[in-house]
Input
Amino acid sequence: MKFEIISNEIWLKSEMASPHFLCQLPFSVSEIEAMIGVEFEELIEDGLGSVCYAFISFDNHQVLLKGFNNRSIKEDFSVCAYMHSSERSPVELLRKVTKTFGIDESQLLELGEYMDSPKYILSRLDDNNNEVEINRFHDKRVAEYLRKKYEDRGHKQDYYVQEII
Output
């Protein structure tokens, strides 16, 4: 499976709220670095210690790979994959991830809860009373959070969240 490494800035440009857990891979940071030639960035996060990140893109899908690796004591933990909160096709993305690592879904240590298409639409009503879709989300809390964030900007437009039935 062909993929490319992307920057944190590219990931953040697409991520509107908070990424969702996609799956836990049966590989450590070191194993993934060796398997696909991705070098993880290491950061220190409050309360978590050393956290390793890598951002990759498959066509129109992006994945955050995140793992814990304490190189000083040679302790390495399995890597988790995260998708954008607005990922339209989690199953397709999961397929790309498993194919890249040469495994099938049964070998994953854990699977995320948001595997269906997004269920909530964040929209706005423009000045001409036209409904304009902003984005779709898996989690209503994320959609509501962004609705409030847009409203707090002081625009005169109305923002609302609808569940897709």
